[in-house]
Amino acid sequence: MQLGMIGLGRMGGNIVRRLLRDGHTAVVFDQNPEAVAALVEAGALGADSLEDFVQKLALPRAAWVMLPAGPVTESTVKALSGLMQADDTIIDGGNSFYGDDVRRAGELKGQGIHYVDVGTSGGVWGLERGYCMMIGGDKAAVDRLDPVFATLAPGIGDIPRTPGREGRDPRAEQGYIHAGPSGAGHFVKMIHNGIEYGLMQAYAEGFDILKHADSENLPPERRFDLDLGDVAEVWRRGSVVSSWLLDLTASALAGNEELDGFSGYVEDSGEGRWTINAAIEEAVPATVLSSALYRRFRSREHASYSDKLLSAMRKGFGGHQEPKA
Amino acid sequence: MQLGMIGLGRMGGNIVRRLLRDGHTAVVFDQNPEAVAALVEAGALGADSLEDFVQKLALPRAAWVMLPAGPVTESTVKALSGLMQADDTIIDGGNSFYGDDVRRAGELKGQGIHYVDVGTSGGVWGLERGYCMMIGGDKAAVDRLDPVFATLAPGIGDIPRTPGREGRDPRAEQGYIHAGPSGAGHFVKMIHNGIEYGLMQAYAEGFDILKHADSENLPPERRFDLDLGDVAEVWRRGSVVSSWLLDLTASALAGNEELDGFSGYVEDSGEGRWTINAAIEEAVPATVLSSALYRRFRSREHASYSDKLLSAMRKGFGGHQEPKA
Amino acid sequence: MQLGMIGLGRMGGNIVRRLLRDGHTAVVFDQNPEAVAALVEAGALGADSLEDFVQKLALPRAAWVMLPAGPVTESTVKALSGLMQADDTIIDGGNSFYGDDVRRAGELKGQGIHYVDVGTSGGVWGLERGYCMMIGGDKAAVDRLDPVFATLAPGIGDIPRTPGREGRDPRAEQGYIHAGPSGAGHFVKMIHNGIEYGLMQAYAEGFDILKHADSENLPPERRFDLDLGDVAEVWRRGSVVSSWLLDLTASALAGNEELDGFSGYVEDSGEGRWTINAAIEEAVPATVLSSALYRRFRSREHASYSDKLLSAMRKGFGGHQEPKA
Amino acid sequence: MQLGMIGLGRMGGNIVRRLLRDGHTAVVFDQNPEAVAALVEAGALGADSLEDFVQKLALPRAAWVMLPAGPVTESTVKALSGLMQADDTIIDGGNSFYGDDVRRAGELKGQGIHYVDVGTSGGVWGLERGYCMMIGGDKAAVDRLDPVFATLAPGIGDIPRTPGREGRDPRAEQGYIHAGPSGAGHFVKMIHNGIEYGLMQAYAEGFDILKHADSENLPPERRFDLDLGDVAEVWRRGSVVSSWLLDLTASALAGNEELDGFSGYVEDSGEGRWTINAAIEEAVPATVLSSALYRRFRSREHASYSDKLLSAMRKGFGGHQEPKA
Questions:
Q1: How far apart are CA D136 and CA D119, in angstroms?
Q2: Torsion region of A217: left, alpha or beta (phi above 0 gives left; psi -120 to 50 gives alpha)
Q3: What is the pLDDT of residue B46?
Q4: Neighbouring residues of A79: CB distance < 8 A, sequence distance ≥ 6
């Protein structure tokens, strides 16, 4: 089927490529004409403005917006909706806050425009491995887009099937789900990222302890100089902690156990934060997920004010003088 | 080669079976004669006492102890060492504290007996999938046992090879490593379990938030009734959080999304605790791993004293009267 | 000076009483006529409707709203503002979210009505000890109300003066501050409560460890049966952890070391949650404050879904069967 | 009565001074002859060796060791015990691990020497304010030293008495308790310090959020430029979070709100770590106390290995390139 794509960065561009390879057609638009040209070469139909883009789409239109979450996505959805008509569908495949989806879907309902939110995991590997997709929206709109999702998803592959799933929605094992009404897709994707932070931090702490197993704080007979690349590798086979993140860890450590070139400064994106906000709203204790987020905040601080205040108190009650950092 | 096995529970018994299947021979002993009989039927040579067991082993002996960590293992190692001689090897394959390995290896050194500690991951799946092994001990002793480890390990299987490992120790991708001197094997296994706790808790919190996404605390337009079995399944394909623990989660939720039959009481074993002790000794901030451990402690409490004290303070300063639980 | 008070619960009623005792006058209103009657007896002028209340206030009016944060406060402020005129002042002394203050102040600005937010700490003890107040709003409006704040505040009392404060705003040591523009008062009060949660949890955990110092998990020679009431009492004198919360703890434990009558169910109010949201918005790692909040969430759960999922995974990889809770 | 003091640093020296002021006598020894001379001038009897020290003490002897916990205290106690006789008492007033007390008391029992452990809080303020003491040991030995403890303790002072303590051990409100057998004193002191870490961290986080309330991450209308010195000061009067640590915070911020001169590097001492070990041994979830400890560990790291590993994973799955720190 035909899909329109706005935003031809790494994610948007590769999604179009994966669709074209499987026989779908695509109309594409981006602020950057070179990005459009590259996909035209790959077989897509290029547009040079939003108006042109909408015009070139067959009715009922399906326009996928793949832009940075926030103001850019917001204004694009608004502009698109002004050009589209009843029964068209706008798909937000970015990392939007699910509350924004709920609001937008409500606003577009009056015009009869469908709004579908797609949480997409897969990153730079999606073109080859396929994209894991969590989808929110009206059943009719989601069902109509099924050929697109079926192509983009990884498929069953050689991953063993889960026993006990007989008779359940077969899309899940293909790698996509219709999670619920508008917002549900990005909600599930948000939690996915929250979990991701927790998993990453668990590995990071474990390897940190392994790394410091030769610390001079330890009695000499209990110091170990471990090969962390081999540890990561061995856990990939038969251990309880095997995972894709561990595979990536093993790759990173294979050639660079000291992790040279990384500064220790770690960014976070909205989903990790929103996950905590959601947990608090639901009164669910999200201890590990919060800790993981906070460690990233902390990684970006130098000479934290909170730590200075601890030293000031220590000086106050005990006359302690901290060493210079 | 020949291996002696003391302790024929699920782990010890299956290790022997996997060895026998691959052409090795085994002498086996257990307090329970039926356990011995079952393995004799599978092809092992049975012993009816520790003395008999030692006598039946060819020189230099290799005796694997697969018993509960703590006093039982301690006294068995002691008794065994009294019956063995220089150049024999005692292998502790249980979940011993690595500090105990260091001590025991030192004690046995005087007698010329080798001591090898093997941290073993794989649980009930090991017979089929193989065991992931982290090994500590003298190079000579570990090398001599290599045929045993090679058989027990999972092997490369169909897991993609890690790029950049060319020229590195090939045992790691077979599923076993010689981590370092005595104690290093159990140290690495200990951290493995510490990470395991953190990973599990990350998933548990994420699914807890998904589960409560239909909470009445939320505004109606932002409530979702999600199919958690499908969420777990979809993440298995192409997502960043795919892992073996997620596979198990998907299996558990496929047929029993409410997790009926589980009380919410969660045990912990020594490794999770020792991991935190090790982190503290090294001054490594193990925030997520500690939180995961504490959540298990908390799962086993009713009407926690600490919580009662919070209520007592709240009554003191604000006259707040908590509802009955 | 004259103050109007809407909401004559424990807080509102006692604030009026403290004002009357010091020679101020008050117009009072409450949905409950008995609450009005009680304060009329104490010397206030009663009103039987919001209209009557506004009418009885001298120009420029000062109306203090002391109602539950949320819809009730919102609608009352809205109704009041419809009856008031330029240069009047509305004071929100409840536990409103500071973002609501910012919004309301902006809305009222068009009408020329001042909006002052007062975060008030002191609880049931305020009538005797005075109220610690954190105030947000325009300088003119806050200054005009100074006689009210001066009466309500605790005053210097016998608390030693902080060295180095010479030349600084003397109101702080009287027990009230003008923290900044509208919203700043409730913002500071919000953080106050966030800290309060952290402090309480620190004591709660410490006493929990003391309480379990006779645990059978410990080696007999390291078990202690401690008198927690005496411990709390001794720390009140000369120790680093002395505080008002410790005073309350000592009182609670003096007569009831087992804390009988408390169920272990602990409520939380908005401020603790908003504190975490604010920390996340600022990217400040609020590890302890979050943990304290989560422990309260957890105190209200039975057979947590997250814990059940841990058990399900443990069963999956290790065949572990958890005991019934 | 007469007390011997070994170790005349800030703590030991001031303890002797407070005793001399109240009419007691003291024999003193220190490796540093100048420290001895200073106290001789203050009225103590000086010793120039451990032998001399023991000789100058009247029978039954009472020798207080006030030295750094660990090897120095250990060897001094050992040397002392070799010179003393049955019914003499050794007091360890330092910050020893309570398990060491249990062991030492057992070892000395054979010789009939009493061993009393005294956890002492009060720091640089003790000479003036008195010392809060938590004491472990045999009843007879502790009772015999009562005149010393009574002098060192702060006394009731002007701190209000706790209602409901009628008929309970009056020593607690004087500022000292006999907590239990040997080890109990340092155990209680250890938890005191654990709580101290938690309280400090709660304040530190709260002030950190206040400090960043003017962050550019926030919408302009919700930014506040707060006077943190005034906030600390106002909370000292009538608020729920008033405490001695808050008094110290107010002092620190009064003249130096930016906390210039503090590097952000925060040390920790043994007690905070032992508290966590004890909690784990008891299976008590010490979430806040652990977080507080870990924040100190983290304050001392630059470019943490764990954070680098997070970046390596992020690069692996998403191609993310972290900025330089």
A1: 8
A2: alpha
A3: 98
A4: A50
Residue C197 C-alpha, separation from nearest chain D C-alpha, in angstroms: 8
Alpha helices, DSSP H, located in chain C: 10-21, 33-41, 50-56, 71-83, 98-109, 126-129, 139-144, 146-152, 171-174, 184-211, 228-235, 244-255, 270-282, 287-299, 305-318
CB within 8 A of B109, min separation 6: which ones?
A: none
**In the annotation, is B173 catalytic?**
no
Distance of CA B114 to the CA centre of its chain: 23
For residue D84, the surrounding DSSP H or E stretch is none
Q: Tell me whether residues B302 and C264 touch, CB distance under 8 A.
A: yes
* ipTM field: 0.96
- Interface probe for C, chosen from D236, D266, D274 (most Cβ of C below 10 Å), is D236
Q: Which of residues 88-107 of D touch C (CB under 8 A)?
A: 98-99, 102, 106
C215 close contact with B: CB closer than 8 A: no
User: For B281, which of A122, A187, A217 is closest by C-beta distance?
Assistant: A217
Sequence-distant (6+) residues with CB within 8 A of C285 are A294, A295, A297, A298, A301, A306, C279, D205, D295
Segment C11-34 shows an average pLDDT of: 97
Separation of alpha carbons D308 and D221, rounded Å: 36
| Residues in contact with B296: Cβ distance below 8 Å, sequence separation at least 6, in sequence order | B197, B266, B267, B268, B272, C307, C310
The set of residues, in sequence order, having a beta carbon less than 8 Å from that of C25 and lying 6+ positions away, is C1, C2, C3, C44, C45
Q: Does C230 touch chain D (CB under 8 A)?
A: yes
Strands B114-121 and B132-136: antiparallel
Asked if A283 has any chain C CB less than 8 Å from its own CB, the reply is: yes
Kindly write down the DSSP assignment for every residue of D88-138, as one continuous string.
Answer: -EEEE-S---HHHHHHHHHHHHTTT-EEEEEEEE-GGGHHHH--EEEEES-
Q: Please tell me if residue C321 touches chain B, with a CB cutoff of 8 Å.
A: no
Alpha-carbon gap: C41 to the closest alpha carbon of chain B (Å) = 25
Q: Which of B196, B211, B233, B257 is catalytic?
A: B196
Q: How many residues does chain B have?
A: 325
The answer, for B22 touching chain A at a CB cutoff of 8 Å, is no
> pLDDT per residue over D81-110, tens digit each?
999 999 999 999 999 999 999 999 999 999
Which residues 287-306 in chain B show a CB within 8 A of chain A?
287-289, 291-292, 294-295
Per-residue pLDDT 10s for chain A (325 aa) are: 999 999 999 999 999 999 999 999 999 999 999 999 999 999 999 999 999 999 999 999 999 999 999 999 999 999 999 999 999 999 999 999 999 999 999 999 999 999 999 999 987 788 989 999 999 999 999 999 999 999 999 999 999 999 999 999 999 999 999 999 999 999 999 999 999 999 999 999 999 999 999 999 899 999 999 999 999 999 999 999 999 999 999 999 998 999 999 999 999 999 999 999 999 999 999 999 999 999 999 999 989 999 999 999 999 998 888 887 6
Task: Give the global pTM.
Answer: 0.96
